[in-house]
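job 3f2a | input accepted
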Amino acid sequence: MMQKVDPMKEKHVQRTAVPQEEKTPPILAGRHAIIEAIKAGRGINRILLADGVRGSGVNELRDLAREHGIMVDTVGRSKLDALVSQDVRHQGAVAYVAPVAYVAVEEVIAGARARGEDPLLLLLDGIEDPQNLGALLRTADAAGVHGILLPRRHSVPLTETVARVSAGALEYVPVARIGNIAQTIRALKEQGFWIAGADMGGEEIYDRANLTGALVLVIGSEGRGMSRLTRDLCDFTVRLPMMGKINSLNASVAGAILMYEAQRQRRAKAAV
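job 3f2a | predicted structure (272 res):
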């Protein structure tokens, strides 16, 4: 089916962990503070601007958010007042901050190839439950996945809940925020990646498909699975045999099985 090379090695290099007392709070208030946080590469999930707020600082903030693909929503000032303590001046701007910084897709790939490994990535299409994302992160670390691709829209961002459920794995597994899923998949294909999607009607049983080489495993949402466009862009789809009365598995469970199968195949190839 596929001609692929070199197995992936087992171990990640630890990301720089932030001491607990220095971790970024989930809320950052003030235009200038948010601007500097973006410039410093901090992980920003979403920015809220008060309706009617104006000025050069607001324009700079909007431009930076657009450049970095950060969502900006306009809300009533009372909503911002409710988010911060009374002694904090939010200047009409509040940001939801991720527990760790997001990374670029290129950085994840370069890190894998610098170690002589075929990149193994997990792309999550519509995962909205932080429990599932945290569990997938934990398994990704254990199974040697190089990084997770997380769409900016229709997906849960990195939050304190995700970090807690991941049991520390968020400090080790790089997470890249991506914009358009289709564009990302096409770009990765041009770099030699194969795209394998988990689907109940997949054409191959998961343990018979070739999951070695530069690979992206796609896991769809908890209820709907992958979107139709994402499914159409997959090079192949795999299914998990269901022997009982229930016809689907939790997204984090399905992802765990596929990640470990990919690791099993890579180990077997390395042993030959």
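job 3f2a | The domain at 27-97 is CATH 3.30.1330.30 (60s Ribosomal Protein L30; Chain: A;).
job 3f2a | closed
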